[in-house]
Amino acid sequence: MSSRAEQKLRTRRALMDAALAQLSADRGFGSLSLREVAREAGIAPTSFYRHFAELDELGLALVDEGGVALRQLMRQARKRIARDGSAISTSVETFMEYLGNNANLFRLMLRERTGVSKPFRTAIKAEIDHFVTELVDDLKRFADEQNKPLSDARLVAEAMVTLVFNQGAEALDATPREREDLKTKLKTELRMILVGAQALAKK
C-alpha cells in the first residue's frame, strides 16, 4: 500500500474516531456537524468529502464497524464456550466486554435503530439480522449436542437479541455494581427463555 493510501486510511479513521468521541448519553449522531467532526479530526471541512460523501455515510460506516466488531467478539466467545462451557454466562460476559470497549458505537446503534433515518434503520436491522442468524446456528448446534430440541430456534434467537440490546442500553451508564447486577439478571432471563423453548418443544 502506498504512503498516500495509508494516509487516506488514517484520516478516514480519524474522522470516524472524531465522530464517536462526540457521542454521549446526552448527544446523538444527528446533532453532529460535518465542520466539528472535521475540526476534531484535525482536517479542513472541505477535505471531509475525500473520505465520505456526507456525514450519514460516516455514520453508516460506524454502524458496519460496530456490527462486525460484535460478531467477531461473539465468535471468539464460541471458542471460550467450547473450552470452558457455560454458553450463556460466557456470551453475556463477552457482550459486556464489548459494551465497555465500544460504548459510543453501541449508543449509535441503539439510537439510530429507531431513528428518523431509513438508511440507518435498514443498516442496523441488517446487522441485527446477521447476529440473529449466527445465534440460530449456535442454538441449533447446542440443542443437537445436548439432545434438548427447541420449539423455534429463530424466535428464541430474536427474543434473546432483543433482551440483550435492551439490557445493554441500561448497562451503558450503569455503575460497576449496577452492571454486575444487570449481568446476573440477564443471564437468568436468557436461561428462562432457553428453558421455556425447550419445554415447549416437548409438547
Jot down its keywords:
single chain, 203 residues, Arc Repressor Mutant, subunit A, Tetracycline Repressor, domain 2, 8 helices, 0% strand
Biggest beta sheet summary? none
What fold name stands as the CATH topology of the largest domain? Tetracycline Repressor, domain 2
First-residue to last-residue Cα separation: 60 Å
Average the pLDDT over all residues and give the rounded result.
89
Derived from helix and strand composition plus strand pairing, the structural class reads mainly alpha
Beta-strand proportion: under 5%
| β-strand number | 0
Order of helices and strands: HHHHHHHH
Protein name: Unsaturated fatty acid biosynthesis repressor FabR, TetR family
Keywords: DNA-binding, Transcription, Transcription regulation
Domain HTH tetR-type: 10-70
Pfam family, one: TetR_C_46
Structure description:
The structure is a single chain. The chain has 203 residues and is an all-alpha fold. It has two domains: 1-53, Homeodomain-like (Arc Repressor Mutant, subunit A, Orthogonal Bundle); 55-201, Tetracycline Repressor, domain 2. The chain is 77% helix and 0% strand. It has eight helices and no strands. The chain has helices at 3-21, 34-41, 55-84, 87-101, 103-113, 118-146, 153-171, 176-201. Helix 4 (87-101) runs antiparallel to helix 8 (176-201). The chain is elongated, with a radius of gyration of 19 Å. The model has no long low-confidence stretch (mean pLDDT 89). Residues 33-52 bind DNA. Keywords: DNA-binding, Transcription, Transcription regulation. InterPro entries: DesT_TetR_C, Homeodomain-like_sf, HTH_TetR, HTH_transcr_repressor_FabR. This is Unsaturated fatty acid biosynthesis repressor FabR, TetR family. Residues 10-70 form the HTH tetR-type domain.
